[in-house]
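name: query_chain
kind: protein
chains: 1
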Amino acid sequence: MGTGRLTGRRDQEATVPEASTAAGGTANGTADGNAGGSAGGAPRSLAEALRTRDDAALAALLRARPDLLNPVPGDVTQLATRAGTRASVVRALERLDRFALQTAEALAVSPDPCPYAVLQSLLTGHHGEGTEGDPARAALPRALGTLRDQALVWGDDDRLRLVRTARELLAPSAQRPSPTGLGPTVAEATAGMSPTRIQEIVAAAGLPATHDPVSAVTALTGLFTDPERMSALLDEAPAEAHQVLGRLVWGPPYGEVTPNPTAPVRWLRDRGLLLPASARTVVLPREVALHLRGGLAHRDTAPVAPRVPAHREHRPQLVDANAAGQALAALSTVEELVKSWEYAGPAVLRAGGLSVRDLKRAAAALDTTEPSAAFWIELAYAAGLLAGDGEADERYAPTPAFDDWCELPPAQRWAVLARAWLPATRTAGLVGEQDSKGRTLSVLGPELDRSAAPEVRRRVLDLLADLPEGASADARDLQARLAWERPVRGTGDLRARLAQWTLTEAEVLGVTGRGALSGPGRALLEHRDPAPLLEPLLPEPVDHVLLQADLTAVAPGPLRRPLGDTLAVLADVESKGGATVYRFTPGSVRRALDAGHTAVDLHAFLAEHSITPVPQPLSYLIDDVARRHGHLRVGAASSYVRCDDDSVLGEILADKRSAGLALRRLAPTVLAAQAEPAALLDGLRAMGYAPAAESRTGDVLVSRADAHRTPARSAPVPVPDGPPVPDPTLLGAAVRAIRAGDLAATAVRKDPAAPAGEAAPAPGALPRTSAAETLATVQAAALTGSAVWIGYVNAEGAASQRVIAPVRVEGGFVTGYDHTADEVRTYALHRVTGVAELAEDQV
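structure:
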């Protein structure tokens, strides 16, 4: 076998001998990041292939693989080297669709370089005959163009090369089977085998003996890649041997054997149709498998993306109306959730997040399931409406942004939630699962970010947007399409679950209605304001309720802000829907009195906003609670209870339920307690009393809804899935910088003559000239307007080579246009190691 020969320039690569068959090629050590000249103009490296691209093609590469821009490569050689790094190649492979990835996998098991016809046969089973109607044949140019555009494949159609790192990732090895299910080639499988054993295999296969192992392996490979001779050999095989081959042909290609294998296995092993991989393992050579497969690299190819047909069709007006109802319910749910944390919000766990018990409480308060409550909590957090208060005993509480959000019109409030949901990387669906260390993932915890979530979410909505208005899609069709677009193993399960969560969340949020994308949802997806489209769909807020004799009030629609806020304090929500039912209880009336309202205020409020007369039972309830409210006073002395009626205090002391409060009488009208004021208030209320808290001055403390807010908090920033896509300005600047650096790096220079008695400088070394020669050369270049090559050492001691066009030389500095940096720069002459002229054809 031939070996590669390195050429002289730093940007030239090893030349690689071509294999003659589709099965025989292996990945020789080519330097994909290097460039070199070639006869006939064909590129000999990835760098040279990139150098021939125009600016638009380079910009497209940087846009598709933005990780190549950090930092901006100095020249094309650096760009090619970076494009061949493992991390960058893995990232590029993860973003290929199924057929483009299958094309790359086929190249990984093909000769290097691979002719187009061989690649086509690996994907279609034919060398071009009778493939006019083959979808794979029609789709191959597009897939190959994608690989070329992303610098994963380079070379002309007769010499296609997969970058070395991609070949290493996709080709089979002893530790990792190929995605195609193919095993190693005959040459790879027989490496290390004794020459005697190889000659025995050659003889058993009916081939003439050879003088060396290399020619023997070549002869065996030729036999396995010759369809006629291979068919004749297999015709002689026992029927059981065909069954053994059938179990291995589509992978995995490895099988275990006993020390005394059966006759069919011995027959296959003796003729090299199975080769030893270890003491107890045999492998099916790639050439044999390809013959049995009819030349196909994959059992099933997927050249065309699966369609996402319309599953059900609804009138767009019905979809929008349904979505508007869901949007209204979402606003109510988020507002109710955040308001329930205004005072005694749940504690923040030491590791961050919400405890399981607090999640259950939130779900019970919202009358929903725990997964649904987790979604609403994470949505409010993503919108910046709640956060930790940052205190020593940290608790979750509303942020100041919540008050601003409540003042917005309903449609705008929904737009805030929807815009926070679409790009969010926090994934509520993971709550309750375990991470890699066995820790349970909690709501608002630090481990819920999944960078793929925004891409999957937007892609699902894009697929729904491609359907006719009012049409929904089947979840299985969406899953199949997403799996085709991103087929790389390891992330498929998460992406499938993200898609399912997206459908559920979009429906409860009102982005979709009955599974179809709504008008506001479409506007959200197109970066338009969805509020104007949603506003006409929402019912007008009402300013009245219907009071009923069973101590309930019915709100026939969404309530205006002052009415809704006051009624939420005065009554408890009993049921939701098109009409909300509120129930008045002693506790809810006491809550209103604690907030500073008087009985007179409450009677006037109900009479003003009820279109039915105030029922007598409700009036009695308000008067009764108000009569007892504040009769007891609780303050901080650690704490105390005071009351003008000493008989009431006597009842409290005699009540067995007060034992836990550790009360004792200090005076006829004062009791002292060991409990904190808040605990004392709760204990007395549990006993049926209606105490009021008071300040140190003896005034009644009024509890207001906005009493506890966190300091100003910003919404959490989504975790990016790799570098952001660069904008056109950055792309243009990067391409210009790469071109300029490449011009400087590839310019042909006149090497300075070596002083008498000294050896000539090594090629590519920094030029060395005396200070006088340096000054004279740059002055001459400034006068003639020509460019020169200089060696320069900066203040940090880093040496570099630059191509500059001097325009001014004075004061120990030279100012000129630096072709390497594509800008005007000034250099200190004492840091210039030397200067040389460019070659005649470079001036």
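note: The first strand starts at residue 153 and ends at 154.
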